[in-house]
Specification:
One of its GO terms (molecular function) is kinase activity. By secondary structure, the protein is mainly alpha-helical. The protein has a single domain, classed as Alpha Horseshoe (Leucine-rich Repeat Variant). The chain contains nine helices and no strands. Helix 6 runs parallel beside helix 8. The chain starts with 40 loop residues before the first helix and ends in a 7-residue tail after the last helix. The C terminus is likely disordered.
């Protein structure tokens, strides 16, 4: 038994923003150019339903904008930077991942032409998965798995992009595993596509250095 297990095997550490795995530049947003109220995480967690819904609608509309000019891209990135800062709050993360914002994030991960936006969307998804304390019914997690897996497969030789996508995939896997421990019966919406495991195993087999240590 002493040969099989080591103490480090029993220690769980986060994937997203773990300095031992990947060094992330500090996230800063411009509150004056945010186009939505720059509420603190504490303020967001205590918003009444009317104010919360208004906040979500404005955030989703900004992310879902089809404008393709540089200003629109900067506005989206600024909003994503802001979401990164509030997603580390457990109550806010739980409210956001269980809201209409999560499908919009998935859509941006699929459709955004700007890879900077896709990278920040993946980071927001990973942070939400890491910090949420509860995952509601009918949240399209399987869709997120499928999309992240496809993007990693399509960009397998681009280690920089994989560094953006793999942490989000890992945090979602851990979230699903945690949810399955809580539930007596597995939910269909939480099933992990086999392709996700295939891609991860391929990464391990290739021995590619995926993260900056």
């Amino acid at each position: 038994k002493e040969l099989i297990y080591t103490e480090s095997d029993l220690i769980i550490t986060p994937i997203i923003d773990n300095p031992k795995i990947m060094k992330q530049a500090p996230v800063r947003f411009d509150s004056k150019a945010l186009h939505i109220p720059a509420y603190s995480a504490e303020k967001l967690s205590s918003l009444k339903d009317v104010d919360w819904n208004d906040f979500l609608q404005r955030a989703c509309a900004l992310l879902d904008s089809t404008e393709k000019n540089p200003g629109a891209a900067r506005s989206k990135l600024n909003l994503l930077y802001y979401l990164c800062t509030v997603a580390v709050h457990k109550e806010v993360a739980s409210r956001l991942i269980n809201s209409q914002l999560f499908p919009v994030l998935i859509q941006q991960l699929r459709a955004a032409a700007n890879w900077d936006i896709r990278a920040k969307v993946a980071r927001v998804i990973g942070l939400l998965a890491l910090h949420t304390s509860e995952l509601g019914e009918n949240i399209p997690v399987s869709e997120a798995f499928i999309l992240l897996t496809e993007l990693i497969r399509e960009n397998f030789r681009n280690s920089k992009l994989k560094q953006c996508l793999l942490p989000a995939l890992g945090e979602l896997l851990y979230l699903i595993a945690s949810e399955e421990v809580k539930k007596e019966h597995p939910r269909e919406c939480l099933l992990v596509p086999s392709a996700a495991y295939t891609v991860l195993m391929r990464c391990l087999r290739e021995g590619v250095r995926l993260f900056h240590c």
